[in-house]
Design goal:
Length: 463
């Protein structure tokens, strides 16, 4: 590790060891993602325990819609991560400055757009999903309050992406730890003391997100290195905007389309009634921790690849792929195994209803045992984006995952009407997607090596 990396305690992604580096990078992000996931989990737990299963169902029935907001934010922030990391790898200080300030400006603009669009289409979307009548008013209220905080959420995600691109994954974790504690405390106060039900847990989430956004902004402003944020210089730089959009827009579009397919799947869950909807939501909240453990490895693969691509260190890419897949599979199996073993007591934390627990366990057993397949797929998706191919993984995800699942619901599910039938579509779609992404990665990688060799020959000839 370089002297600068040691002093800043940031990870050397270009020269340092890979497996230990990926693990060091992933663990804080994993913990950060879990804390972020706990926002919604705490909402589900508190309303389930103190406001009843109808209020709990109102929150869990919006998982797909809330996921649409969250995934759009995270997907767009991928562009900031990739471009800042690429500039760091190339040691382009002016490029880093422009990318950081463009990212922050873009986060606020995109957050405002998401708020406006989301508030306009909340009720139609919930009706399209077939949200149970007894829940729809509470569900709409919950989503609308969260949408008001979309610019705050976007600011945090983009700011955290900038820090991670520089190798700093610990401070975003600390910020979410603080805001997570505030979220839980406010949940209890608003629901138990003020009896605000779903409105209370939504307001608690926004308040805690505001804290994490303010903290990440303060760190960027006080940074002494290349990612320092100067408030007066926040603006859109054309070239950096184009580059961020080239990576972030396909990623964000993929996340939106992915979430829309989940909205369709949620409408299938709603056919089984309020108790099943609550159970599916609880199970999804539990197995969501498995996904987050592997999504952290995806972000590691994305950032390591982007820095090495920026440094033209192409010979290291396949080593990053192998190391990332190994870490993703191990984390998926370990965390998945934990959720299966402790599934019942975990579900009981969310609800006092035995039937809700059984519905939750049905999902956890299938999803948690196969989520490592999603981890492999995500690593390949991150690698492709890191080498400047963001459209291909979007197409694969739209067709191989969303398209396959919708086709499955329209065909197989009609003949085998059960929740298990829906769950089986997930691992099948992951297998299809990671095979297609691996083929694409190998094709693009070979072209990259061939182009690099040609450029080297041209340079030698010129000399």
């Amino acid at each position: 590790m370089s002297i600068a990396a040691k002093k800043s305690k940031k990870i050397d992604m270009i020269n340092g060891p890979l497996i230990s580096g990926i693990v060091r990078f992933s663990l804080p992000i994993m913990a950060t993602g879990i804390l972020q996931h706990l926002y919604n989990a705490a909402d589900i737990m508190v309303v389930g325990k103190f406001a009843g299963h109808i209020a709990q169902g109102a929150v869990t029935s919006t998982v797909a819609v809330v996921g649409l907001i969250t995934n759009a934010s995270i997907g767009l922030s991928v562009g900031a991560n990739v471009i800042v990391a690429r500039m760091i790898g190339a040691k382009n200080k002016e490029g880093i400055h422009r990318a950081v300030h463009t990212s922050i400006a873009l986060s606020l603009i995109c957050g405002l757009i998401i708020s406006i669009i989301g508030l306009t289409f909340t009720e139609p979307l919930l009706n399209l999903m077939g949200c149970p009548r007894e829940m729809i008013d509470l569900s709409a209220l919950y989503v609308k309050i969260l949408l008001l905080g979309a610019p705050i959420n976007m600011l945090y995600n983009f700011g955290a992406s900038v820090l991670r691109a520089s190798g700093d994954t610990k401070r975003p974790l600390i910020f979410l730890a603080v805001s997570g504690l505030v979220n839980v405390a406010l949940n209890l106060v608003f629901v138990i003391v003020f009896e605000m039900s779903v409105a209370g847990v939504a307001l608690a989430t926004i308040a805690s997100q505001l804290i994490s956004a303010v903290l990440v902004t303060i760190v960027l402003v006080r940074d002494k290195g290349d990612v320092k944020l100067v408030i007066k210089k926040i603006r859109i730089y054309k070239n950096e905007l184009i580059n961020i959009i080239k990576v972030g827009l396909p990623s964000g579009a993929q996340s939106v389309i992915f979430s829309l397919s989940n909205v369709i799947i949620q409408s299938s869950y709603n056919l089984f009634g309020p108790v099943a909807v609550s159970g599916v939501g609880v199970g999804g909240s539990i197995d969501g921790f498995v996904y987050l453990s592997m999504n952290a490895v995806y972000q590691a693969a994305l950032t390591f690849t982007s820095q090495n691509y920026g440094a033209a260190n192409y010979s290291r890419l396949n080593k990053i792929l192998r190391s990332s897949v190994l870490v993703a599979v191990v984390s998926g199996i370990v965390v998945g195994g934990i959720t299966i073993i402790f599934g019942r007591p975990l579900a009981s934390i969310y609800t006092n209803e035995p039937k809700v627990v059984e519905y939750a366990l049905e999902r956890v057993y299938i999803m948690s045992s196969t989520y490592f397949l999603c981890g492999i797929m995500d690593v390949l998706s991150g690698m492709l984006r890191g080498i400047n191919h963001s459209v291909y993984p979007m197409i694969v995800s739209v067709v191989g995952i969303c398209g396959f699942r919708i086709l499955w619901i329209c065909t197989v599910f009609k003949y085998f009407f059960s929740l298990t039938t829906i769950y089986i579509s997930y691992p099948l779609s992951w297998i299809i997607a990671f095979i297609a992404m691996y083929i694409g990665y190998m094709v693009f990688y070979k072209k990259l090596i061939k182009r690099s060799a040609s450029e080297s020959e041209a340079d030698l000839s010129a000399k």
